[in-house]
Write a structure and sequence with these properties.
Elements lengths: L6 H9 L4 H5 L2 E9 L2 E4 L1 H14 L2 E11 L2 E10 L6 E10 L2 E8 L1
Parallel strand pairs: 1-6
Antiparallel strand pairs: 1-2, 3-4, 4-5, 5-6
Amino acid sequence: MSIDLPEPIADYFGADRDNGEAVARCFTSNAVVKDEGRTYTGIEAIKNWKTVASAKYRYTAVPLASEKQGGSTVVTSRLTGSFPGSPVTLRYFFHLERGKISFLEIVP
């Protein structure tokens, strides 16, 4: 299934297959990511977050649906991989600013 995502979000899911540095390039310099009860602020922290997560878990994320909610774009994605409870469906709350991601929260 293919869904139409705003370019910065499509770039994020494409970069997610690569590495932390590729993912970090999708964000503004002062962006914030919230995932698994932790908050990461700024490019370096986001790059480290994704590098550690990618080393810890091998997974594939497939966006299933996208909708606007207020100022957010909410993407529902299915993650399948080598982690407890796989597969899981997660919701990604994206805020965009000047063609990049300024905020991302990932929730079950």
